[in-house]
């Protein structure tokens, strides 16, 4: 009786990270590139059925839907050894093949046109699973397909499957270098609105931070997409490890996510992973302990979101979940938490429960790592709002100049007015405001006439 | 002498026929019919019985007889006898020596051969003479032979009886002056000599009143001639008397004979110091007692096996004594060296002390043995006394007494070892005399879950044998294991390999004897010299240890060792001939026993226990069962059980009828099917009846998941522990219910709430919905935090760490008892840490309060809530959170709940405070 998760891969970026993700899952479950269980993996007690289902010939098929408006990435996938892994019926390529042209509006309107065909696939997948728990969406928010079509999909899915959890892995554009997509701020903002309103949980993957980590941590001078995507897939697989290797706790996605999100809109999560190793060079084998891993996870340079330095120092964690993989004694966790608490390594919100939750998970027996313990942090941190604020700034710059809006005006949504954009801006602004409010102890009375009985604790660190 | 017989001839003839028959019956041990009473019949009968005699045997006998004469320095008689035999052979020469002739010769010689029977032959001689007169010419000579023999024997009798009834007066001289002092000395007779030949008694009614007996008596009492004997002769007689006294049979007979006074004769040895007389008396008295005991035990079945073995050991010591006496006699006969009575005394001295010690010990053993206590006490007493005396002997008298006692001890242990052996190899206690401290409680079958701890009753108030104490645990362990194993063998056909390994070819007693002998006979000093034996001879370890510890001691030890070696080898062959081989006197007794007894027993026990564990784990899937229980009742299979719980909670929520046992079982089996379908047959859900069955949180505690624990797993997973499993399960389910409900509250649903409610009349009483929602969200966050923390603590710090500990214990366990204990501790500690015991009730109640608040919040999420009520819930929650946090901070909570610090810290560090406005 699994709690299945259906993965939707949208656009160029979404399909690339999705491809890496499935590669990783196959390796961890001992499934060959053609979906056949390897001989050494037949005795496994892992749950393959969360992300895979078995065809009549017993071979494993990912619960994945691949959508794109242009054929390049999907063709690459179909020419790779993993071509036979996917269910060909689940791969949807727009017939005209022209793509969305990096235009959110184009992607969105494509979605409206292709609704029936796409939801045919999704409905079939959903009905094929016994107890569907969640949809996971992989996309980027800057392009056309991932953002536009993704936004459309988010709206429709939350309508159509209101009881299912919608989680996204959203790649935020690299703001450090100039993008070739000039309308990126528009695309991002419009997508962010849907992510705020229609998703239950957004795992923010910031290209800026990913590049930084690749260069700083892995010592790759010019990181390729594959290398960046492998980082992303590591995070995706680690965050689902407790679902796939069942144990006492955190056996469903909702249990994993719910404690992280206290209020509906504060659902943008940062991630951190340690230790990171490069496939090509096994430079140094470090001694990994639970404390070591948990301390590293709290270091900003390991975060996969680049936030602007916090001048006031007011930003804080709303919640933290550490998924520790490997052979760990529960008592070590306790000691590490104690140390972190003593050293006040993490600043928490003043109005709510403040503690690091820890989930223990097994490691895949089929993938050898040089580290005994590895850890993933899923954190709800108010500083993520700086990312949104940055997008707002860029948006405002363009919007003021009314730049590059012609492309959008061609689409039905923006033909009459650009209200949608302004509406989105309001939504994001209020999101940023809420995050700021959440750093204060009077967040309880935020938007309220009368405060409730719950008050903050005296301790604010954990 | 001759006139004496002539006088009585007429009297004898009247009894001739009678005696013929009696003699024949006694010779052949067969009932003689009337027709056989003629001489031909006798011959026929004799022929039948002596037909198997070979020429060689007869010749050997003749030689032996001559040798005997020589020993007694009766060279004249020897020569005469030789001549007679030669004549006899000459006589039969024309016809050739036929088989019957040899047989008859043999018969004659046989009658005269044994010293014991010499007196008998004197009497038989008469009979034979009478017989011979009638016919059989060829035998005439032989009658003369016997006549001569008879004469000789009469002399012997005479001399002997003289000796017996005489007092040795001259102590200075080599000559012995025998004076008839019978009347005075009768009472102080020191040697009881029941050496009347056996066959005299076979027909008691026939012989009892015979004039022969009277005759002998008259003869003894009337003869007043005093004789002077040489020391040499006396030595012979004493030796002979000693030998006789060792012959237990004669004692046995004499004890039953009514006219025993007839056979009782006394020796008075004049000239030897009084002490030596006393010495003989004591020695013989002791031997007599021991013999008496031996005979009693062999004839009476009321004695326990241990007593019988002990008696046999005593008898063998007496036999050894007899053997060494006869060896001495041989040396006397060889006449290579001059041996006097003093030599004999010297020779007997160690024996005497040994035997008197044994006798003393025996007395103390018999004191309790005769008391009407149960056999176990008696056996325990026997072994304890034996062990104590052996230990004492090692200190006091290590060279002579110690080895003897050691031997007795080992033999006495044998029945016990055999019983243990049988128990350890076949799982059966065979204890016909109830002598060992192990009683199987037949009321408890191996299927019973109490089997391990209650199947065996130890006898009440046993003063258990101290050196066996460390052994008893091993034995009990091993025995129970074997019993289970044999039982299991019937269940599992493919068990043969296991039992084959346990049933080894050698019995425990054999191994013990072998090892003990190896230890006892291996010359510890030789081993010390040749290092190659270090492994096989633990004795070497001892000197070495001493060496390493104390240089002075080691030096002393070395001296002692050298002395010992010199003594030993200077004495040479003779010492070697001693039946008791040189024991490792310096090796402490207890380690010696341990080495030879405990070790094989332990290794056997280990083997058996291991076999049992292997069987339990491999064939009965013990680990699998414990794992299944952990996965289901302790929710280690979080996904599967989560699924089951969700289905159950869903039924609660929508108000379905949920308490249908079979549908619940079906749902459970369905949920666990992906990974644990093999456990399905054992599982079923039932609902405790009797409580009200309304749908509420409380009601969950009525739900139980039963696990039909198969035998032999129920020895480990008892019904009692199943109750604990279920009580933990219901607590976990309550937590999960609250947690799942909180987790699954969707913000989207909350948003749509006020749209739905907007039309309702109570809208006005509600707070502005946005603020209310916000408060509800935050309360949910707090509750979720609290419940998750508790869940986290229970899952990781309680369940997971306990299960890691249990797994380690299971791996290192060497016998089933440990596994039972580990599992019991595991379940109990989890039960306690999950606050299911009365001591944790106040905490549990507080947590339950929070859980029910959670449920209310979950309902409010769906149905809306008034501001007042929400405030109530908030306050209530804060109160309970603070209470739980405060309690967990205390030391008592820390001591009650290990690793609770994590939870305490989590709750203390983020504790909501009430704020009143």
Task: Offer a concise description of the structure.
With 462 residues, chain A is of the alpha/beta class. Helices cover 39% and strands 17% of the residues of chain A.
Low-confidence stretches of chain B: 1-5, 113-227, 248-275, 493-504, 522-550, 564-583, 693-698, 755-767
- What's the total number of strands of chain B? 7
> How many strands, which pairing sense, and closed or not: the largest β-sheet of chain A?
10 strands, mixed
Report the C-alpha radius of gyration of chain A, rounded.
22 Å
Characterize the biggest β-sheet of chain B.
2 strands, antiparallel
The helicity of chain A comes to 25-40%
The name CATH uses for the topology of the largest domain in chain A is Rossmann fold
Number of helices of chain A: 15
Mean pLDDT of chain A: 85
Number of helices, where a helix is a run of at least 4 consecutive DSSP H or I residues of chain B? 41
N/C terminus separation of chain A: 37 Å
Distance between the termini of chain B: 143 Å
Radius of gyration of chain B: 46 Å
CATH class of the largest domain in chain A: Alpha Beta
Enumerate the strands of the largest sheet of chain B in spatial order, edge to edge or round the barrel: 1-2
Strand content of chain B: under 5%
Percent helix range of chain B: over 70%
What does it look like?
Chain A: It is found in: Cytoplasm, Cytoskeleton, Microtubule organizing center. Chain A: Residues 48-247 form the Tubulin/FtsZ GTPase domain. Chain A: It comes from Daphnia pulex (Water flea). Chain A: This is Tubulin gamma chain. Chain A: It holds the Pfam family Tubulin. The complex is a heterodimer of chains A (462) and B (917). Chain A is an alpha/beta fold. Chain A has three domains: 4-267, 3-Layer(aba) Sandwich (Rossmann fold), CATH 3.40.50.1440; 272-383, Tubulin/FtsZ, C-terminal domain (60s Ribosomal Protein L30, Chain: A, 2-Layer Sandwich); 387-449, Helix hairpin bin (Helix Hairpins, Orthogonal Bundle), CATH 1.10.287.600. Helices cover 39% and strands 17% of the residues of chain A. Chain A is built from 15 helices and 13 strands. Chain A has helices at 11-29, 72-78, 104-128, 145-160, 184-198, 207-216, 225-239, 241-244, 253-257, 290-297, 330-342, 385-401, 406-409, 412-415, 419-438; strands at residues 4-10, 52-54, 60-62, 64-68, 91-93, 132-140, 165-172, 201-206, 268-274, 317-326, 356-361, 373-381, 454-455. In chain A, the strands form two sheets. A ten-stranded mixed beta sheet of chain A has the order 5-4-1-6-7-8-9-12-10-11, with helices on both faces. Chain A has a two-stranded antiparallel sheet with strand order 2-3. The radius of gyration of chain A is 22 Å and the shape is globular. Mean pLDDT of chain A is 85; it is low at 449-453 and 455-462. Chain B is mostly helical. Chain B contains 41 helices and seven strands. A two-stranded antiparallel sheet of chain B has the order 1-2. Chain B has a two-stranded antiparallel sheet with strand order 3-4. A two-stranded antiparallel sheet of chain B has the order 5-6. Chain B starts with a helix and ends with a strand. The interface between A and B is large, with 61 and 74 residues. β13 of chain A pairs antiparallel with β7 (913-914) of chain B, so a sheet runs across the interface.
């Amino acid at each position: 009786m699994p709690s299945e998760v259906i993965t939707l891969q949208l656009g160029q970026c979404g399909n690339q990270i999705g491809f890496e993700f499935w590669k990783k899952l196959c390796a961890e479950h001992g499934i060959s590139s053609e979906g056949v269980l390897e001989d050494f993996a037949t005795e496994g007690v892992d749950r393959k059925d969360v992300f895979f289902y078995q065809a009549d010939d017993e071979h494993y098929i990912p619960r994945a839907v691949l959508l794109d408006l242009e054929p390049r990435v999907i063709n690459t996938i179909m020419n790779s050894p993993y071509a036979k892994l996917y269910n060909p019926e689940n791969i949807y390529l727009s017939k005209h093949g022209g793509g969305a042209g990096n235009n959110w509006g184009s992607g969105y309107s494509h979605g409206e046109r292709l609704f029936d065909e796409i939801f045919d696939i999704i409905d079939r997948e959903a009905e094929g699973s016994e107890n569907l728990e969640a949809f996971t969406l992989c996309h980027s928010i800057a392009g056309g397909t991932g953002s536009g079509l993704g936004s459309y999909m988010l709206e429709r899915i939350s309508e159509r499957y209101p009881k299912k959890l919608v989680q996204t892995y959203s790649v935020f554009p690299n703001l450090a270098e100039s993008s070739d997509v000039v309308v990126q701020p528009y695309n991002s903002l419009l997508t962010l609105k849907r992510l705020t309103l229609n998703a239950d949980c957004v795992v923010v993957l910031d290209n800026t931070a990913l590049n930084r980590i690749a260069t700083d941590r892995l010592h790759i001078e010019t990181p390729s997409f594959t290398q960046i995507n492998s980082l992303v897939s590591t995070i995706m697989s680690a965050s689902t490890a407790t679902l796939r290797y069942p144990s006492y706790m955190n056996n469903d996605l909702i249990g994993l996510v719910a404690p992280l999100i206290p209020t509906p809109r504060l659902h943008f999560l940062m991630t951190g992973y340690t230790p990171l190793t490069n496939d090509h060079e096994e430079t140094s084998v470090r001694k990994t302990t639970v404390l070591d891993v948990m301390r590293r996870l709290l270091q900003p340079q390991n975060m996969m979101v680049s936030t602007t330095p916090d001048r006031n120092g007011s930003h804080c964690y709303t919640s933290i979940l550490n998924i520790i993989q490997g052979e760990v004694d529960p008592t070590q966790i306790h000691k590490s938490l104690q140390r972190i608490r003593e050293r006040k390594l993490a600043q928490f919100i003043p109005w709510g429960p403040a503690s690091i939750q820890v989930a223990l998970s097994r490691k895949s027996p089929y993938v050898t790592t040089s580290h005994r313990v590895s850890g993933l942090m899923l954190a709800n941190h108010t500083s993520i709002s700086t990312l949104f604020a940055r997008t707002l700034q860029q948006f405002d710059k363009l919007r003021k100049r009314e730049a590059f809006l012609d492309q959008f005006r061609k689409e039905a949504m923006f033909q009459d007015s650009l209200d949608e954009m302004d509406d989105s801006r309001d939504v994001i602004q209020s999101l940023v405001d809420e995050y700021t409010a959440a750093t204060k102890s009077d967040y309880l009375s935020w938007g309220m006439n009368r405060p409730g009985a719950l008050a903050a604790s005296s301790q604010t660190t954990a | 002498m001759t006139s004496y017989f002539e006088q009585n001839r007429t009297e004898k003839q009247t009894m001739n026929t009678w005696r013929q028959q009696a003699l024949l019956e006694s010779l052949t041990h067969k009932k003689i019919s009337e027709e056989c009473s003629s001489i031909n019949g006798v011959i026929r009968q004799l022929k039948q019985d002596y037909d198997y005699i070979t020429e060689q045997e007869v010749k050997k006998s003749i030689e032996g007889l001559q040798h005997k004469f020589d020993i007694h320095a009766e060279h004249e008689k020897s020569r005469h006898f030789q001549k007679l035999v030669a004549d006899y052979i000459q006589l039969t020469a024309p016809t050739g020596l036929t088989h019957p002739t040899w047989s008859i010769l043999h018969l004659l010689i046989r009658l005269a051969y044994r010293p014991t029977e010499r007196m008998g032959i004197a009497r038989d001689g008469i009979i034979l003479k009478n017989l011979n007169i009638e016919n059989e010419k060829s035998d005439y000579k032989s009658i003369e032979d016997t006549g001569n023999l008879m004469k000789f024997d009469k002399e012997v009798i005479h001399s002997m009886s003289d000796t017996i009834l005489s007092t040795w007066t001259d102590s200075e001289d080599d000559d012995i002056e025998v004076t008839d002092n019978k009347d005075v000395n009768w009472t102080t007779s020191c040697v009881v000599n029941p050496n009347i030949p056996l066959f005299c008694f076979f027909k008691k009614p026939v012989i009892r009143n015979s004039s022969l007996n009277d005759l002998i008596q008259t003869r003894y009492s009337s003869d007043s001639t005093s004789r002077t004997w040489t020391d040499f002769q006396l030595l012979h007689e004493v030796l002979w008397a000693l030998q006789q006294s060792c012959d237990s049979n004669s004692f046995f007979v004499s004890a039953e004979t009514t006219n025993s006074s007839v056979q009782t004769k006394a020796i008075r040895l004049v000239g030897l110091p009084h002490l030596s007389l006393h010495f003989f008396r004591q020695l013989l008295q002791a031997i007599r007692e021991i013999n008496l005991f031996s005979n009693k035990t062999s004839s009476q079945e009321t004695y326990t096996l241990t007593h019988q073995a002990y008696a046999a050991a005593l008898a063998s010591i007496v036999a050894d004594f007899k053997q060494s006496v006869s060896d001495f006699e041989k040396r006397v006969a060889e006449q290579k060296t001059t041996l006097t009575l003093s030599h004999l005394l010297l020779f007997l001295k160690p024996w005497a002390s040994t035997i008197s010690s044994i006798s003393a010990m025996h007395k103390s053993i018999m004191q309790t043995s005769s008391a009407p206590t149960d056999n176990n006490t008696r056996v325990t007493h026997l072994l304890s006394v034996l062990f104590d005396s052996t230990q004492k002997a090692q200190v006091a008298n290590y060279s002579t007494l110690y080895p003897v006692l050691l031997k007795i001890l080992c033999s006495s242990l044998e029945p016990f070892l055999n019983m243990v052996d049988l128990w350890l190899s076949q799982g059966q206690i065979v204890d016909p005399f109830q002598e060992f401290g192990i009683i199987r409680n037949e009321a408890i079958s191996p299927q019973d879950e109490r089997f391990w701890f209650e199947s065996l009753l130890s006898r009440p108030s046993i003063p258990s044998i101290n050196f066996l104490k460390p052994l008893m645990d091993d034995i009990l362990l091993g025995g129970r294991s074997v019993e289970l194993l044999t039982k299991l063998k019937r269940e599992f056909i493919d068990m043969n390999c296991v039992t084959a390994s346990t049933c080894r070819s050698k019995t425990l007693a054999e191994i013990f004897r072998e090892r003990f002998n190896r230890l006892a006979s291996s010359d510890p000093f030789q081993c010390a010299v040749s290092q190659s034996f270090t492994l096989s001879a633990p004795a070497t370890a001892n000197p070495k240890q001493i060496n390493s510890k104390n240089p002075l001691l080691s030096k002393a030890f070395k001296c002692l060792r050298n002395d010992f070696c010199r003594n030993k080898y200077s004495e040479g062959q003779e010492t070697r001939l001693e039946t008791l081989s040189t024991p490792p006197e310096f090796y402490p007794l207890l380690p010696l026993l341990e080495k030879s007894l405990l070790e094989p027993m332990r290794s056997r026990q280990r083997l058996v226990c291991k076999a049992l564990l292997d069987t339990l784990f491999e064939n009965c899937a013990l680990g699998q069962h414990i794992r299944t229980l952990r996965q289901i009742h302790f929710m280690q299979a979080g996904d599967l059980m989560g699924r089951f719980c969700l289905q159950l909670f869903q039924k609660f929520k929508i108000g379905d009828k949920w308490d249908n046992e079979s549908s619940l079982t079906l749902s459970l089996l369905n949920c666990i099917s992906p990974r644990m379908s093999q456990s399905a047959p054992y599982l079923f859900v039932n609902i405790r009846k009797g409580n009200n069955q309304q749908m509420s949180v409380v009601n969950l505690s009525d739900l139980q998941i039963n696990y039909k624990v198969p035998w032999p797993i129920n020895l480990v997973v008892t019904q009692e522990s199943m109750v604990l499993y279920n009580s933990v399960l219901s607590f976990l389910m309550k937590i999960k219910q609250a947690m799942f409900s909180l987790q699954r509250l969707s913000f989207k649903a909350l948003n749509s709430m006020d749209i739905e409610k907007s039309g309702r009349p109570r809208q006005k009483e509600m707070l502005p919905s946005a603020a209310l929602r916000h408060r509800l969200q935050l309360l949910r966050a707090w509750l979720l935090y609290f419940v998750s923390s508790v869940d986290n603590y229970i899952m990781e710090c309680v369940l997971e760490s306990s299960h890691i500990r249990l797994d380690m214990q299971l791996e290192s366990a060497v016998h089933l008892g440990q596994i039972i204990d580990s599992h019991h501790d595991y379940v109990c500690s989890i039960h306690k840490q999950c606050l299911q015991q009365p001591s944790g009730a106040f905490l549990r109640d507080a947590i339950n309060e929070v859980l029910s608040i959670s449920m209310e919040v979950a309902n409010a999420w769906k149905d809306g809530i008034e501001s007042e009520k929400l405030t109530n819930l908030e306050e209530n929650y804060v109160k309970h959170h603070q209470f739980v946090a405060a309690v967990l901070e205390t030391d008592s909570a820390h001591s009650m709940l290990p690793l609770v610090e994590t939870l305490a810290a989590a709750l203390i560090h983020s504790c909501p405070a009430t704020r009143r406005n």
